[in-house]
Amino acid sequence: MTQPTNQTSRMVVLEDQLLLRDLLSSLATTVPGIMVVGEASEGRQALALCEEEKPDIVMFEMYLPGLNGIEILRQYGPKHPNTRFIAISSNFTPDAIRELLELGCHGIVSKSSSASKLKEGLREIKSGSGYLCPVCASLLRESHLVSNSVAKKKNRLSNREREVLQAVAEGFSTKQIAEMLEVSVKTIEAHRANLMKKLDARSAVELTRCAFEIGIIELPGQSKPAAYTMPG
């Protein structure tokens, strides 16, 4: 999992509408520690820009002309595992949201969200966490994409596994979780392996999705679980 950083994150904005692209870039620069280093309006141009700039964060319109956002994520993401992606669109479908999550997209924000929600998402992405805006989270819930099999698996998790799952979903590293829970790194690695097996997850991103689906992590806008504190 990408570690949270206080360093400046270089970001590119991939959006086909000029006015909105300018607004998104301007908004992003108001988030401390984010610097916009490039923009593109078409998918293939966007992919070339990413290859040239090697950004830390890629904000992309889901339905770019030429090459859509899912294809950009599919082609660029595996080659650059430290790059973090945040998808934006006004036309998200539940299936599209799920596909983005399965491909490892770190953040998803509907264009019907407020500017403050987008900034919140950017801060979370920069810090190493994931972000699903309230609009998209509601789409997933309302479409019944939460499978009964996953929900039932929640009951198979031990209290400690639930604690570890919550911490993973909140963006903490294995080492940080071990310090929080006052156990060894190997113990946390074992818990993560068990969680992936029980929840049929292949990555931290998929564990985060499962945490939202089964209610370990509250949807944005709802009350959050009590925050972890470092042992004194």
UniProtKB/TrEMBL annotation:
Residues 10-126 form the Response regulatory domain. Coiled coil: none annotated. Residues 150-215 form the HTH luxR-type domain. It comes from Pelagicoccus enzymogenes. One of its GO terms (biological process) is phosphorelay signal transduction system. InterPro entries: CheY-like_superfamily, NreC/VraR/RcsB-like_REC, Sig_transdc_resp-reg_C-effctor, Sig_transdc_resp-reg_receiver, Tscrpt_reg_LuxR_C, WalR-like. SUPFAM superfamilies: C-terminal effector domain of the bipartite response regulators (SSF46894), CheY-like (SSF52172). Signal peptide: none annotated. The keyword Phosphoprotein applies. One of its GO terms (molecular function) is DNA binding. This is Response regulator transcription factor. SMART domains: HTH_LUXR (SM00421), REC (SM00448). Keywords: DNA-binding, Phosphoprotein, Transcription, Transcription regulation.
